[in-house]
Amino acid sequence: MGNVLVLDHPLIQHKLTHIRDVGTGTKEFRELVDEVAGLMAFEITRDLPLEEVTIQTPVAEARMKVIAGKKLGLVPILRAGLGMVDGILKLIPAAKVGHVGLYRDPETLLPVEYYVKLPSDVEERDFIVIDPMLATGGSAAAAITSLKSRGAKSIKLMCLVAAPEGIELIHKDHPEVDIYLAALDEKLNDHGYIVPGLGDAGDRLFGTK
Ligand code: URA
């Protein structure tokens, strides 16, 4: 079963509290999400393999470590996932960015894919799927299925806040996927919002309502 890692670094928790606060406006919300995404990326990339290279310092020749040419791919789920991309790219500027767009069919309530664009070398990349709010988990599970059907072999899921229901669905549909969170909240309410959550992440990021 994939791991669930709650990244409880004090900086992440402090910023997340301000993100949650209903009094935080769009500009600050966007900046904080960007910062938290970067801090989370720091942890998510902890297992990147290193290799040794020879360099010349001003004093001596030395064998030192660099990241071993690992190919990463970020896949934000539209639209709220976009809010976390830049913060990660600041740390991993060479990562390629794919996009997955899904909507919920009003009759079946199931996610339907309306847009997918991924880097061409899907099979060689390690992907981080980005879904800030893992509520029922339906969109994230469908996005991961979509990546796998196109040949992706290595996928992690990154969320800001999750509900237990979402974690359960990912475990069921994609038991090998590790899930990285800033917080695991209590439950979903009758409208599908995470409680206490932070409201609608897309609306708060983009100032829509
Ligand atoms: N999507 C959101 O943006 N917020 C929630 O609480 C649940 C799903």
TrEMBL record:
Uracil binds at I194, G199, D200, A201. It catalyses: UMP + diphosphate = 5-phospho-alpha-D-ribose 1-diphosphate + uracil. Residues 6-208 form the Phosphoribosyltransferase domain. Allosterically activated by GTP. Its EC number is 2.4.2.9. Keywords: Allosteric enzyme, Glycosyltransferase, GTP-binding, Magnesium, Nucleotide-binding, Transferase. Its cofactor is Mg(2+). Pfam families: UPRTase. 5-phospho-alpha-D-ribose 1-diphosphate binds at R79, R104, D131, P132, M133, L134, A135, T136, G137, G138, S139, D200. InterPro entries: PRTase-like, PRTase_dom, Upp_B, UPRT, UPRTase/APRTase. HAMAP family: Upp_B. PANTHER family: ADENINE PHOSPHORIBOSYLTRANSFERASE, URACIL PHOSPHORIBOSYLTRANSFERASE, CHLOROPLASTIC. Belongs to the UPRTase family. This is Uracil phosphoribosyltransferase. It comes from Fictibacillus terranigra.
